[in-house]
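Input chain follows. Return structure tokens only.
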Amino acid sequence: MTLLQQYRTVRNASEAICRPLQKEDYVVQPVVDVSPPKWHLGHTTWFWETFLLVPHKKGYKVCNADYNYVFNSYYETVGARVVRTDRGNLSRPSVDEIYAYRQYVDAAMEAFISAGPGEELEKVIVLGLNHEQQHQELLFTDIKYILGHNPLFPAWSDKDIDPAAAQGQDGFISIPAGLYEVGYQGDGFCFDNELSRHKVYLDEFRIAAAGVTNEEYLGFMEDGGYSNFVWWHSEGWDWVKKNAVASPMYWHYIDGRWHQYTLAGLRPLQPEQLLSHISYYEAVAFAAWKGCRLPTEFEWEVAAGRFQWGKRWEWTESAYLPYPGFKKAEGAIGEYNGKFMVSQMVLRGASVATPENHSRPTYRNFFHPSLRWQFTGIRLAQ
């Protein structure tokens, strides 16, 4: 697939995710971590304009001078921006204006790519494609949060993106002690936080062949998992009490039966399905209840070729920190990952919302321990 074809494919995919929405759905921001769908559509367009067209396409005129302020996410280098909590207050620009903005930038980008931007700028274009794919996953999870917290539980589609059953494996896989290499290696794309490749020593460990299911987690709940502090970190126990947490996100106990909100609407809980939408705090507590622990991110990566993965982002016991030799790029691009390497935990794998060809064993996702609106799950280790 040519670079131009890749560009068109990725851009079309973002709009396809939003196609089932009503216009009112595009504007809602229930919590700070969830951005309105129309903001995602605008921000991913702003990226192309800001980092490629404005500095590198001669004679390019920005679509609207106010859009840099509206759609800048966190790039201090690029200038002032709307506070993240205020994205839901942006009734203007309208949804139609944002789609017109996408068309304007797409026409310029297609001409820019067709003219041959050169090897260095092609790397920025590939980064932009991966950036938009990240936002496609956020579109799925943010839309699910928006609709899943609507009292009517409206469906995004009549078909859920999440498979009904977990993987068929069971038991634990033994990995011998030794010196291993981790981090990205190859000629393809990776994010800067996957570099540089380096050696780590691991003691012998065992890692579960499959992720934890809803049924297994129900056992934790029925055994008083959310009412017994002994399984929890102090910070996690404070989070449970402060937020009155008693089940994973999107679980609802109705008429004596557990239900779960899905992108296809509210449905009876499927016991065999992989557990999803849990925090790091919950993952650690469940692991302790099982007499296990979470794997480190390096254990996960070393063992990843031995089990099926990719349906859930899997919490690890590793803090999000730079690898040896990590270097930030110059300018705004250098703000992409490095400045977030504090107070967050690493997740490995991918999820049912991750776009095709956007996952690899070295991919390092990261979130604060309390967050659970992503398709997050658990794989145990010993």
